[in-house]
Amino acid sequence: MEMLHSILVAPFADMAEAPDFFLQVVWEGLVSGVLYALIALGFVLIYKSSRIFNFAQGIMVVFAALTLVGLHENGVPALLAVPLTLVVMFFLAVGIERVVLRPLVNQPDIILFMATIGITLFLIGLGETIFGGANKIMITEQLGIPTGSWVLEPFGGFVSIEQRDMTAVVGAVLLVIALLLFLNKSKMGRAIRALGDDHQAALSVGISLSTIWVLVWFISGIIALATGIVWGARAGVSFALEVIALKALPVLMLGGLESVTGAIVGGLAIGILEKVFEIYWGQPLLGGNTEAWFAYMLALLVLLVRPQGLFGEKIIERV
Amino acid sequence: MFYRIAGQYKTSYHTDYALFPVKQDAWLLALILLFAFVVFPLTASDFMFRALLIPVLIYALAALGLNILTGYAGQLSLGTGAFMGVGAYACYKLITIFPDLNIIVAIALSGFFSAAAGVAFGLPSLRIKGFYLAIATLAAQFFLLWLFQKWAWLYNYNASGAIQVPNMQLFGVTVAGAQAPVLAQYFFVLIVVCVITMFAVNITRGRIGRTWKAVRDMDIAAELVGINLMKAKLSAFFVSSYIVGIAGALFVFMWRGAAEADLFDIQLSFRVLFIAIIGGLGSILGNYLGALLIVALPVLIGTVPAAFGLPISSAMVEHLNTMIIGALIIGFLIIEPHGLARFWALIREKLIIWPFPH
Fold first, then answer.
1. Per-domain residue ranges of chain B
2. Looking at domain B44-353, which CATH architecture does it have?
């Protein structure tokens, strides 16, 4: 009885008692949710257009952030370092397409998946060789991102909102709008979606596979850079960032592998729910650190009901 | 050339399906076993055993378990590391609760714990497929790892949070713990690996193995011809996790000597998956070739700069190592996506028809 009370009643009583703290927790969850959604977006883009499950998205985030900070450390002004990093990400996309993807066209999914893990290892080694394994500080101020914080007082309480988190949220929203416009309105965007629908039909109307692949990997690179900047501003730039890529996987499962909407909704849902669960259930009852697995378990439960995720394409199988 | 099969007639169905349809295969195996049981123990140094031979065998065993699930039954799993952990922690608990338990019995029993965990996390496979399932097995990986850290009963409330292998004897010889001679551990691992490999070869050749392959190739079609999907998938999870659990117990008891929860993290899962894929999915031999490559390569690369007298720091060696392994994985996938086992099959084919090209 007491146990049921502590699971079913006490957490909600806590929430009602301190609504300002609850809002703070939700806000924190929302910010990490935005970052999960951004990484998941990079996954979805590549999966949609090439059916490649891109495990390297996480390391691309780290690599982009490291390149940016590394360039700045070597005397490049911050605002010039951003376009230079984009150039590096472009060449990375071209390199990956040329060296890895082109020879592996038409191989089974798992082989391509393993190849992206190979890319991950390679980039980890490369990044460590060039920039060293040490933790770096993101050049937040030099990029013009405000670092102060606002204090709101709802319900007579106290909620603090960091301005850089607000910047991250606004930036992510703008990025997603730009991406959706690009995918839905531009010619290239339509080509990407056509390729996702049917490879051979797209090829037969003259859409170039390799151009599109370079393009989607480059867009993923841009998203990676944006993710790297905002996450790096919160937690510093190090290879530990790579583990947040693993956090994006349950987001994908929850939202569905092919759906941009799914990535965003799933990311926000997981970000908020895992924070709330950790604070109100995990720490008092389970000894904390439940964020490591909560997202996966949640996604697993959702998948048992909807095997293609919340927004994924319905899987139709024929014999 | 050495593989001339002229004169080896197969006069019955039975001989066609024998374990060694070609006599030379049996001789080759005998030669390898001769090396493993006689030549290596006589010649190899302690470093060779510790850094090369024992880990290769244990990793190969883990990959064999994974290969049964992924290569034969077609269910992609990324939770191998955690299932190895279940085996290791179960073995540790069994031995500390029943100190008189024979170590062979303890290891054999600990496999059942990881098999149970495997079946529990395999249940979603009845509804989820492909990459969705792979991510679902990640739930096992992260949840179990968290459990190893938080559930203090598992490591007997040690302050360090690590499990320490006690000294254990078998037939009067110490085989586990700090005082165990490396040769005894090597033989223990070798014998266990041989027995399980023999079991795996036969189970994949037989009726159960054929149902797994049918499920792998197309599960709906398999269901239509009367295969019970649930039984086939869960039995694959059971057998696979059992072998993986035993590999995990050996990993800690015969090699590392002590373990923390972090040892069984996702990197371990990926390493085992690399071995299975580079070796060749759906082959038994491939696991050994893959393990040889993935385990031996870093050791070799580590010695190269020193041999040339290059002034490279050990951190740099490690970074380069990661990079080279990543590149090699991509390279091997491009050259032969079906793995090293296919390489060997091609060479064997060529040897059989040599000197003729066709």
1. 44-353
2. Orthogonal Bundle (1.10)
pLDDT in tens, A73-85: 887 787 888 888 8
Asked if B29 contacts B35 with a C-beta cutoff of 8 angstroms, the reply is no
- How many Å lie between the alpha carbon of B352 and the closest alpha carbon of chain A? 29
pLDDT, tens digit (0-9, with 9 covering 90-100), for A174-225: 888 888 888 888 888 888 888 877 778 888 888 888 888 888 889 889 988 8
- What is the pLDDT averaged over residues B36-51? 81
Q: Tally the domains of chain A.
A: 1
Residue B311, amino acid: P
Q: What domain range includes position A128?
A: 2-305
Residue among A101, A121, A285, A319 with most chain B CBs within 10 A, to mutate = A121
Q: Do B145 and A292 touch (CB under 8 A)?
A: yes
State phi, psi for B100 to the nearest 5 degrees.
-90, 0
Parallel/antiparallel/unpaired status of strands B258-259 and B163-164 = antiparallel
Of B124, B220, B330, the CB nearest to A317: B220
pLDDT digits (tens, 9 = 90+) for A282-319: 777 777 777 778 888 888 888 888 777 777 677 666 66
How far is it, in rounded angstroms, from Cα B35 to Cα B41? 8
Is A151 within a domain? yes
| Whole-number Å distance between alpha carbons of B187 and B36 | 9
pTM score: 0.87
Do residues A63 and A49 touch, judged by C-beta distance below 8 A? no
Contacts of B149 in chain A (CB under 8 A): 289
- The ipTM (two decimal places) reads 0.82
* Torsion sign over Cα B118, B121, B127, B133: negative
Chains A–B, number of C-beta pairs less than 8 Å apart: 136
Please indicate whether, in this complex, the C-beta atoms of A293 and B130 are within 8 angstroms of each other. no
- Cα A313–Cα A26–Cα A286 angle in degrees, nearest 5: 90
The encoded tokens of residue A219 equal 């867009």
Mutation to test the A interface, candidates B125, B146, B150, most A Cβ within 10 Å = B146
Record the tokens describing residue B38, joined without a space.
């006689």
Q: Is residue A310 part of a domain?
A: no
Q: What is the 3-state secondary structure (H, E, C) of B147-215?
A: HHHHCHHHHCCCCCCCEECCCEEECCEEEECCCCCHHHHHHHHHHHHHHHHHHHHHHHHCHHHHHHHHH
